[in-house]
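[Q] Does anyone have a clean structure-token version of this?
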Amino acid sequence: MYHSKLDSFPDNFLWGAASAAYQIEGGWNTDGKGLTIWDQYAQVPGNTFENTDGKVAVDHYHRYKEDVQLMKKMGLKAYRFSVSWARILPDGEGEVNEAGVQFYEDLIDELIENGIEPLLTLYHWDLPLALQEKYQGWEGRETVQAFKKYCEVLFKRFANKVTYWITMNEQNVFTALGYRWQAHPPKVSDVKRMYQANHLINLAHAEAVASFREFVPKGKIGPSFGYGATYPASSHPQDVLAAENGDTFNNRWWLDVYCKGRYPVFMMKQLKKMGIAPEVTEVDENLLQSVKPDFLGINYYHGGTVKTNQWEELTKEAKEKEYSSIDPYQMAAKEGEITIESGMFQTIENPHLEKTDWGWEIDPVGFRVALRKVYAEYDLPVLITENGLGALDTLTEDKKIHDDYRINYLKDHLIELQKTITDGVEVLGYCAWSFTDLLSWLNGYKKRYGFIYIDRDNQEERSLERIPKDSFYWYQKVIETNGDNLTNDL
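[A] Here you go.
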């Protein structure tokens, strides 16, 4: 759709940036905080990139006031952060740690005092270690009830201070990385366990939404999902069918549950045939159907391109070969790889797209395609909870970071977002990933996303000085003009 003139961003648009507790806070054993699965996982040599961990991270726990002042200087309207469950309930389910609750209350108050809307994420991957050891983490139904208790502590405390709440961050990503690719804790490869754990996480999300309605009646709540559109490799009907399969496999399997309260029939039938479907009780079904989010949080980095499944295309010899690969946003079979989705589709590179330093496709138009599709399918407002570029930033001798590549990436995506709004999609806000540099789950401190450079690397904490990049001042201007400057030179 071509528009001769684009609509302006809404006057109340939430221009923001995002982070996650384990990736920025540090203070891993401070003020009564309990251990998380990541605190343990990162101590095992070889589990993380160059053995990096979040013990100090970028020390936001002790420097949050400094960070909020930088947010104010930038002009942020919103800041998305996550709460560390183990700061609130050190063993995941027992006594409340008041010092942990107070830290987040102080952060929230600091944000509000500086005119910044707090967007609170309840779970961003740092499960309390005690729950993993006692109940096998998300494989135990007891963890669902523990999550409900944890959420209610926050709901009761912050009901009058926080309007926007996010339940699970990228459930599709952390389940696959933890239970299939062995790249996150609990570091196992068992797809049956993965699908069962995923089902219990769906129940935890539903329990949280149900409790939210009771304790925060004026608030808004929704999940944050790593979403990307699925393209067919060609107009051949088999490729189009493969794309339909891929979209159900990578997107609808989660979004249909969040928004419609039921699993897609196609996917459930395939999993049952393979004997790896989750056990879903009637009580479970009733719970899932009883809740619906107020919005959909969308994390967008890239989508995927697929062609017809290898069973109908490849030779017997090729079918018997096995390969391995990890793409956190496309849990998808590569060519020749024997996987649960091999009979549905296979993923290929898109020849029309450039890639980041880490091999992720750059697809701003896909951002618009994705948001159009998800809005049409689920009829819910969209909040962009993550979008950004990880890159190898260089600090100059005069302490500058000239990250034009990040500016260009964000600008291209924001222009497509403005087109999406002009198309008619209701978009509440946009949170760039990330506000400061932080610890990447898979790439340590080498992969930098932030508007603010943090003086540290994988081996040394250094000064942890905060140094605004060129992109900081660019985004400051975008916010100041409410995005009007984005298309000035088009």
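[Q] Thanks! Anything notable?
[A] Residues 60 and 66 are 9 Å apart (CA to CA).
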